[in-house]
Amino acid sequence: MDLDHARAVAVTAAEAAGELLVSGTRGALGARPKGGSGDVVTELDLASEKLLLEHILTAFPEHSVIAEESGLLGAADGEWTWLIDPLDGTNNVVIGLPAYVVGLALCRSGRPMLGVVHDPVSAQTWSAIRGRGAITSSGVRLAPPHNPSPHGPLLAWTQGYSVSRGDATVRAIKYALELSARRMLQLWAPLLAWAMLARGDIDGIVGYRAEAVDLPAGALLAREAGIEIRALDGGPFEEGIDGTPDDRSFVATHPSAMPGLLEVLRESGAVSRT
User: Which end of the chain is more exposed for a tag (fewer CB within 10 A), N or C?
Assistant: First the structure.
């Protein structure tokens, strides 16, 4: 498998989808409810996904795909599987907030080997190949510095759609994080948060039962930029597509900041319940 070729295809597809999204956000969105958690889907999500599927399946017809709106296309146990998030940040777009990205990952036997995140608003793209680092669209390597603030870290929070509003673990963890952090962002666009972390714009991300489609691309991008990712109890974390929602709870930050952030989570008293 030529991962450089796969990256080129994915970047081209993501940037084409980005152009479609930028144009589409100027008109009516055609939003409708999705599921029972208050989420929405728009005609833009569907159009972007259709474009991405055409690019990927034309280049790699033998690969499987798991897409945000279409679900699984191809064999469930295929060696190579693409994950497609055609519009990460739909809720932002619906309220007129220009904070959204396009994400793709290519996994081998469930393990991400390639991740691409494209921001249509800034027209920037970031990508990573496992073991070969993370780069910008111009080829500059991502390597965020660790510049701790005396006022605490700038963190992002993400959680899966299945997490209930009354979840006691979420309340305990978020309360502890808000006390220790300078700011805690809830962007409604996890892939955007991962890109910000890989660039060094924020200091960390804490995720609770994160969604499977957008996690691998972002986590691979951050890890290849030098970010450390652990389970909430400090154990190892794998950003693959297998496992249960509980396997997708994590803390991600610069290695030098990891001990302090894990201590905050332990002090919350909630980690043992995750």
Answer: N
